[in-house]
Specification:
The chain has 141 residues and is mainly beta. Helix content is 8%, strand content 41%.
Length: 141
């Protein structure tokens, strides 16, 4: 499993965990366990995986939303939703830290946990502008 997340840590959400996203997991009360913040950017390549996005290494300036965890007890349920397992080879996503950027791509000095897609993106359509639409999601679980 990834390192433990602690109260006060930042996350960046770019898909189904964004506030107001279609397909968001109803079992995760993110508003009660933390605070949604301002939009942010990060570098990667975003793909439409069939109703939910995944981000892999790349240079596109992707869009995300900051969320600061207050009750770190929710993180194992978030990891389970994202199919993070103890074995990185079997995880659908990995929870890793990335630098956050401003709209121009400059580092803000902040780092945040992100759910990074951990499988091949062959055959999937890229999200060219790196911005997953709120209404595009479908319930995964």
């Amino acid at each position: 499993m990834p390192d433990a997340a602690a109260s006060g840590d930042l996350f960046v959400f770019y898909g189904l965990l964004k506030k107001g996203a279609a397909g968001a997991p109803s079992a995760l009360d993110l508003a009660a366990a933390g605070d949604f913040g301002a939009p942010c950017r990060f570098r990667g390549r975003m793909f439409d995986l069939g109703g939910f996005p995944g981000v892999v290494a790349g240079e596109t300036l992707c869009h995300g939303l900051r969320w600061r965890v207050q009750d770190a007890g929710i993180v194992p349920a978030m990891d389970a939703f994202e199919d993070v397992t103890e074995d990185p080879a079997t995880s659908l996503y990995r929870r890793v830290k990335v630098p956050l950027l401003d709209d121009a791509g400059a580092a803000t000095g902040e780092t945040a946990w992100i759910y990074w897609y951990n499988r091949s993106v062959d055959g999937y359509q890229s999200v060219a502008d790196g911005n997953w639409p709120l209404e595009a999601g479908k319930t995964r679980k």
